[in-house]
Amino acid sequence: MFDVAFPKDVSVLHTTNGSSGNQAGRDSRYVVALAVLAFVIYACTVFILPQVRNSPAFCERSGVAAAMSNILYGTPIGSVHSGTYAFFMDRIDQPLWQTLEQAQAPGTGLPATPSGTFYATTRDGNGIGYPLLVTAAFRVFGIHAWALPLTMLLLMAFSAAAFLWRFHSAAGAGIVTLYFTALTVMLFTSVVWEPRWGPQIAVGGVRYFSLVSVLPLFHILLTLLDPRPMQRQTRDAVLLALQAAIFLLTVLVRGSTLPQVAGIALVCAVLAFRHRRETERLRALFGKVAVIGLASVASWSVIAAAVPRDYLTEGRFGPAIWERVTQGLGTNPAWPFPGVTNMFDCKKFMPQGLQPGMLDENGHCIWFDYVLKHNIPIETAADKVLGSSYETAMREAFFTIAACYPTEVLKTFVYYKPQYIVSAIRRSMRFNFGGDQSRARDPAGAPVVPYPPLAIGLLFVSLAVALVHFGLGAMSTAELWRVGGVTLSLVAFTLPTYFAVWASPPTAGDLLLYCLFGLGLMAGAMLVAARSALPLHVQAIRLPVAEKKR
Fold first, then answer.
1. Helix (H, G, I), strand (E, B), or coil: what is residue 114?
2. Residue 189, phi then psi, degrees to nearest 5
3. What are phi and psi of 430, to 5 degrees?
4. Is residue 546 part of a domain?
5. Is 389 part of any domain?
6. 332 within 8 A of 408, measured Cβ to Cβ
7. 495 domain-assigned
8. pLDDT tens across 367-420, in order?
9. In this model, does residue 434 exceed pLDDT 80?
10. DSSP 105
11. Which of 141, 414, 442, 482 minimizes the number of CB atoms within 10 Å of its CB?
């Protein structure tokens, strides 16, 4: 898989003489037009759906509060006042657009001067990525809920444009077309219409943002796998740097994409080893790696310099990791394991102690035990939650539990968490166009909102666009295998997150997208194979007829 040559791009084919070059150029324009159409359909569907428009955006409230503090009160990027944060959290059950309107309403909205405690960082453990993104969105488009999905769509558009500019072959356009078709299909799965899950993975929100990483990852991997040096040094380097910067932003917004860095590193290591005696190929590979590394470091440095230093000193620059790993032990039905409750004494503050399941309260229990054992002033304990000290407490607790209960911990990772992955994808793959009230209700009895007929029509048009692309026969079987190999690599490095933490429909959006993408790729491969076999079948019929005429 790591030693494939990406097919010649259409710019090379177009320079050939004769009708074949002209035909290739026309095919290139057709498939690129289909990719653009797939994006337009997806963008229109996003803004049509009431499920998207009326989302309360549970996980985004802290980032939105930080953006409002910056815009209204001039606080540094990523900083937040507790009064502003409380305003958004007190209205968490209503649509975000409604809360934003109330926040700006004269008299009843946010006060002219900030209230409450000033925090240099957000307190939700999601890192600096999303507050930075929301602040930019509100600064550019105004304080509107639709600014968040619009900003996400623009990043997707920039990534797609860069990808098509670099890989404007049928295979490259096919990846973009299938990507946006899969995203459109995903809007009709239960992660959007299910009242229990939709608010937890708002389109354009923290968890949904892992989907933005897909095209940058394809771009990076296909560039590395191409044995040739970058054909147009400046252009290709700029496009690769842009994709690396977008990918870094997705990592800062949604930490589940972090294992893909290991995937990129592994591809580089395998390629370097296999071609260690080929000087020219190694030089080309190292040049590409240098561009990716420099773009990532530069982007990271700019962001780090633009936000309060507290994000670095308090360990809040990126998403919290160990808190979720330790909570993930709750996927084991035997949790809390016999005797583990006595290891973490928090009953002075939480009489119930450790509880079954993946509850935030279990992390708080472990934290209170750490606070007491390390003589941390209790009045400062709350401010340190999800910071570096909190992460240290979670990491130490995890390894302490693993040392005392190795069998149960191992069973958690190799038996129970894989079941959660399968269950998350299975439960996500449900469609409900009509808003059947019997299908699902959240604990508060929220109804299932039906899909508008126009949105359903756009879904079928999107599927038709993908079928037309593969029906044109522009992608060869060899190209499909190459794209399939890269897709499997991306899936392989998506899974570690869900083994380390746990998968659920709202958290495993990127894995769901790869599954839909893979299904589309398989359907396309079948169509290409059928189209290729048809002329042979026709020829086999014609030969006996010709023999009879003789």
1. coil
2. -90, 175
3. -125, 140
4. no
5. yes
6. yes
7. yes
8. 999 999 998 888 888 888 888 999 999 999 999 999 999 999 999 999 999 999
9. no
10. S
11. 414
Whole-angstrom Cα distance, residue 423 to residue 497?
A: 16
Closest residue by Cα to residue 160 from 230, 242, 251, 87: 242
State how beta strands 80-81 and 118-119 pair.
Answer: antiparallel
Q: What percent of the chain has pLDDT over 70?
A: 88
Nearest to 130 by CA among 202, 214, 195, 26: 202
Neighbours of 330 (CB within 10 A): 19
Burial of 118 per CB tally in 10 Å (0-12, 13-18, 19+): middle
Cis peptide before 336 (omega within 30 of 0): yes
Domain boundary among 372, 399, 424: 424
**What DSSP designation does 119 have?**
E
**Per-residue burial over 385-415, b = 16 or more CB atoms within 10 Å of its CB, e = otherwise:** bbbebbbebbeebbeebbeebeebbeebbee
Identity of the residue numbered 514: Y
Token pair 């294992």: residue: 259
Whether the Cβ atoms of residue 299 and residue 249 lie closer than 8 Å to each other? yes
DSSP result, 226-282:
--SPPSSHHHHHHHHHHHHHHHHHHHHH-GGGTHHHHHHHHHHHHHHHHTTT-HHHH
- Residues 231, 282, single domain; the answer is yes
Residue 471, C-beta contacts closer than 8 angstroms, at least 6 positions apart: 527, 531
Distance of CA 238 to the CA centre of its chain: 23
* pLDDT of 230: 67
- How many CB atoms are closer than 10 A to CB 23? 12
Q: How many domains does the chain have?
A: 3
- Structural domain including 470 reads 10-53+147-311+425-531
Phi and psi, residue 119, nearest 5°? -115, 130
Q: Are residues 516 and 370 in the same domain?
A: no
Stated pTM of the model: 0.89
